[in-house]
Amino acid sequence: SDIIFNPWKKEENGNQTRVILYTITLTNPLAPKTATVTETQTMYKASQESECYVIDAEVLTHDVPYHDYFYTINRYTLTRVARNKSRLRVSTELRYRKQPWGLVKSFIEKNFWSGLEDYFRHLESELTKTESTYLAEVHRQSPKEKVSKQSTVRRRKRAHGHLRVPHLEEVLSPVTTPTDEEVAHRIKHVAGSTQTRHIPEESPSGFHLQSVSKLLLVISFV
């Protein structure tokens, strides 16, 4: 609640940043019922409109126990995979400003992962509702509207395939805070990470199928 979106600002290095302020509800009996949050988002210059967006969000939760010890980094990678389909991949880290002693560290990490899972489970639920609403609206359209919409889409210039290729490695990279040189390359190691969970996901096979199709076309021509 109480969300405040500040406008995007372009930095000298080409990235864009913005700050979001909001209030969250907490269920932990050792914490207050609500807490204020400052989220600083960075959209990297490697992002391309309508093709791929890579955004890191640094999240500082105030008014919670040991809030000055840690912060969260979430990376959102939104990639276009079809005309009406996108893929959202999220990776996250728990980072420390200063090292707590053992019992406090266990307390922080336990509550960190629990709260994070609840948050993204809720996000998944909301995205599913939005998708269902969109599909229902499409099915309710009259045949004439569908034909008109499809013809409009066909006339639209399709994005060049080569625009996506340079960003594949960036899309697959985990959460990190890259330098200017690292943005253009895949970052294989995460600097400053102390706690990271990775959920494996099958890589998209669209580019492989495209290569096979081109190969078959060449063979047929010969």
From TrEMBL:
<dbReference type="GO" id="GO:0015485">
    <property type="term" value="F:cholesterol binding"/>
</dbReference>
<protein>
    <submittedName>
        <fullName>GRM1B protein</fullName>
    </submittedName>
</protein>
<feature type="region of interest" description="Disordered">
    <location>
        <begin position="141"/>
        <end position="160"/>
    </location>
</feature>
<keyword id="KW-0472">Membrane</keyword>
<dbReference type="InterPro" id="IPR051482">
    <property type="entry name" value="Cholesterol_transport"/>
</dbReference>
<dbReference type="GO" id="GO:0140268">
    <property type="term" value="C:endoplasmic reticulum-plasma membrane contact site"/>
</dbReference>
<feature type="domain" description="VASt">
    <location>
        <begin position="1"/>
        <end position="135"/>
    </location>
</feature>
<dbReference type="Pfam" id="PF16016">
    <property type="entry name" value="VASt"/>
</dbReference>
<dbReference type="GO" id="GO:0005886">
    <property type="term" value="C:plasma membrane"/>
</dbReference>
<dbReference type="InterPro" id="IPR031968">
    <property type="entry name" value="VASt"/>
</dbReference>
<dbReference type="GO" id="GO:0032366">
    <property type="term" value="P:intracellular sterol transport"/>
</dbReference>
<dbReference type="GO" id="GO:0120020">
    <property type="term" value="F:cholesterol transfer activity"/>
</dbReference>
<dbReference type="GO" id="GO:0005789">
    <property type="term" value="C:endoplasmic reticulum membrane"/>
</dbReference>
